[in-house]
Amino acid sequence: MATPEVNPGAGSQPSQQTYMASTHDVYGALEQMLQFSAGFDLIHKDDQTRTVTFSAPSISGLFVAKVAEGSDPSSSIVQVTVPVEAGEDAQSEIAKFYKDLGDQLMVQGATQTMPATTTTVLNTQEQPTQTMPTPPEAPVASAAPAADAAAGENQSGAPTHRAPKNKFAALLTDENTGKTSTMAIVALVVSVVFLIFGFVALGMHPPVVLCIVFAVIAAVLCAAAYLNTQPGKEHGRLFTVIAAGATIVALVLSLIGATATGSRARESSSSDSSASSSAADDPFCEAISWPTAGVGAKAPKPNELKGYVWNDDADYVSIKVCNVDDAEFAEYVSKTKDNGFVGDYKSSSSDYSAKDSEGNYIDLTHYSSFGEMDVTVKSAERYRADMSEKEKKAEEEAQKKAEEEAAKKAEEEKKAEEERKKAEEEQKRLEEQGRKAQEEEAKKQQEAQNQNSGGVTPAVKEAMDSYESYMNKYCDFMEKYNSSSDQSGMMTEYLKMMQEYSDMTQKIEGMDQSTWTDADLQYYLGVMNRVNQRLASVG
């Protein structure tokens, strides 16, 4: 690595450094260094112009670094422009920047040097910048071949130094640039799937062979990914390391889950044999007599009458039955249902409780590991007495709700009956009104014969037409009502028609008949005659 170039007598120059490496290698090292540096932050990069913008924590403003070609294709120049507000503090940051870049190039295997006669000035930037004076000439680090390194000095007499390599970090990560290895990504995905399988295996207990096959596939992918991420190849070593770790953890978890199957089977077999032997030696598993009276007689008799009777009262029975496996418990539950215990039932693989039509309660509990079943039967009174306050309150609320619903239904039926009677009364009133209108019409017809007739007033015609139209509609409804088997369901429509009739009657009665012409009266009588005839046909 070479330090910033000095040009005595030429005044202040923009800071620059020449490296014996191609612009591609130098720009790649520069980008890699800024991305992983703790002292600088990459803000922006332009791959086309090989320019980057970065910042330093202790300096205000932004630095701009540009990689340009040197005097020949094998050399490059890095020019750095500092922010105008940086001041003298930027000198140490620039020196650190060049040192880190040189170390990065040495890690990547690129050699660098600085010809003593080369000087390049960075073009003036559009933003205000400050020119950094170059520090006094420093020794030039040579990255020459091994023979020159053995000599211990370069051409300027300065000792050679190389950046130390962290072997552990190099194993976990890579310095490769470019795209991430597809094989590394595939290995990571497969290892994560294998890890999920490992957690699931703790409960599923898969075969050991399946776990090993899965592990071999993941290991082969990790090995291939490791080879693809060797120095100078593709990026993605960290993904490969994570995939390998996940594969190891997944293998351990899956093997634990797989080997647990055999131990559980042995435990189950031991438990079954222990249960059988304990049942044979249990003093509480003796021959019993099943209750034939009281509430206990309502429970079905089991296939094997062996166990212990804890209680046998008229209103409460508690019995333990021995030698009951899962199939026999399921059969006994079925018999219990056949005996009528199906109300408010609660059921699971090892429990069943329900009530019969009389309110008697039964509770069955199966202990599969011991081959035992507890049968508890209570009369309705005993069950009620043994209920907790909370259960009693819940039952009372349910009963109260049922009573309220019954009362509500009775009220609705009563209201429907009242509506039906009201409809019948309204129908009689309409018939009476129609009869009176018919008599009035006959009377007015007789009087109209001796009077001059003229044109019908539009208002009178409109009112009478509306009345006749409504009455036809009413008669149609009454015909439908009289022939219907669900007259209470038509009460809403009937009440609506009564409201329309009331409005129509008020409209006609509100008209001043003293101003009617003979034609108006004649038209009125004609409408009423037709309406009465239609009403008579309905009645």
Automatic annotation (TrEMBL):
Any Pfam family hit: DUF6591
Keyword Ribonucleoprotein belongs to the record: no
Low complexity composition-biased segments: 139-151
Biased composition, class Basic and acidic residues, residue ranges: 387-446
Leader sequence segment: none
Region of interest called Disordered, as start-end residue ranges on this chain: 127-163, 387-458
Residue ranges crossing the lipid bilayer per the database entry: 182-201, 207-227, 239-260
Keywords: Membrane, Transmembrane, Transmembrane helix
Top-rank taxon, per record: Bacteria
Domain DUF6591: 412-538
Protein name, UniProt field: Actin
Organism: Bifidobacterium anseris
